[in-house]
Amino acid sequence: MGAQLIDGKATGEASDLAVAARVAAMKAAHRVTPALAVVLVGDDPASHVYVRNKVRRTTATGMDSREFRLPADTSQQALEDQVRALSSDPSVDGILVQLPLPAHLDANAVIACIDPDKDVDGLTETSAGRLVLGRPGLRPCTPAGCVVLAKAALGEIAGAHVVVIGRSILVGKPAALLFLEQNCTVTIAHSRSRDLPAICRSADILVPAVGRPQMVRGDWVADGATVIDVGINRVSAPDRGPDATRLVGDVAFDEVVGHAAHITPVPGGVGPMTIAMLLANTVEAAMMRRRIQH
User: Fold this and answer.
1) Would you state the pLDDT for residue 24?
2) Catalytic residue selected from 7, 16, 98, 204
3) Catalytic annotation on 121?
4) What are the E-state strand segments in the chain?
5) φ, ψ at 264 (rounded to 5°)
6) Do you find a cis peptide bond into 238, omega within 30 degrees of 0?
7) What is the rounded average pLDDT of the residues 105-132?
8) CB within 8 A of 278, min separation 6: which ones?
9) Which residue in 36, 30, 65 sits closest to 283, CA to CA?
10) Which of 12-16, 49-53, 172-176, 191-195 has the lowest average pLDDT?
């Protein structure tokens, strides 16, 4: 059996086109241009790449993209003041604080300054509460992208057994809740789970999200399963040169493709969907804040 690749790039592009259509309709009917503000602190190269991609795709959909680049030595107070100012700005619909922040900054305190109605990354306590209670709100981008990719591969996923490896606030827990919203049966597995390979083999949909390179081996995956690999890890690639690196997921891809029916590649799988969901959330926030009906 050879697994079919789930193309996150193509699925993300389709989502961006749908977002662009919604933006155009808002401009025509309401003279509203949704605005996304991104706050970047410091000089982390990966963060700069992510922000550049987010800005490019935001602009391509017709939305207003605003960048706030702060030096690495920015104080906690200055950063919180910046986020509060954006929360109070009626022209801003979505706020994203790019993580990770420099070590001296308290990310949780910064996130708490975001207006939950502008929390397009779904990280505030209010957003988490709305998710748990099943109330309308902005959902975390990466977990939401996982659900979209699973449905792109399988269509109807109600009743499927989903195993999420990882219990983080950013991905694992919200992913489990979002799949539960789709009427899946969900198991959350983690480092203390007994016989983790056996748990994984029970999954119709396996979602590794632990940040451990190639942890999930081929014999952990049932024949015909769908694998949504959230991991993105940089490892050495001596075959490409003494200092070369490459990106791999939490799944040993070359082994798992012999068992799975569908699998996301790394890169090109979940990553592009994270930005797609960010843009979709920004439009949703703009509509909710202005009470515009779909």
Assistant:
1) 97
2) 98
3) yes
4) 4-5, 35-41, 64-70, 94-97, 161-165, 185-189, 205-208, 226-227, 233-236, 245-248, 262-263
5) -85, 135
6) no
7) 97
8) 36, 54, 94, 96, 120, 121, 141
9) 36
10) 49-53
Of the residues 7, 54, 173, 250, only one is catalytic, namely 54
The 3-state DSSP class for residue 288 equals helix
76 tagged catalytic: no
Q: Is the pTM of this model over 0.70?
A: yes
- CA 294/CA 114 separation, integer angstroms: 25
Say what the pLDDT of residue 50 is: 85
Mean pLDDT value of segment 191-197: 95
Mean pLDDT of the chain, nearest integer: 95
Delineate the domains of the chain, giving CATH numbers in brackets: 30-118 (3.40.50.10860), 141-271 (3.40.50.720)
pLDDT in tens, 229-285: 999 999 988 888 888 899 999 999 999 999 999 999 999 999 999 999 999 999 999
Q: Other C-beta atoms within 10 Å of 170: how many?
A: 18
DSSP string, 59-92: HHTT-EEEEEEE-TT--HHHHHHHHHHHHH-TT-
d(CA 119, CA 113): 10
Q: Are strands 245-248 and 233-236 parallel, antiparallel or unpaired?
A: antiparallel
| Cα 283-284-286 angle, rounded to 5 deg | 65
Among the listed residues 7, 121, 204, 250, the single catalytic one is 121
Three-class SS of residue 262?
Answer: strand
Length of the chain: 294
pLDDT tens string 87-98: 999 999 999 999
What are the tokens at 103? 């070590």
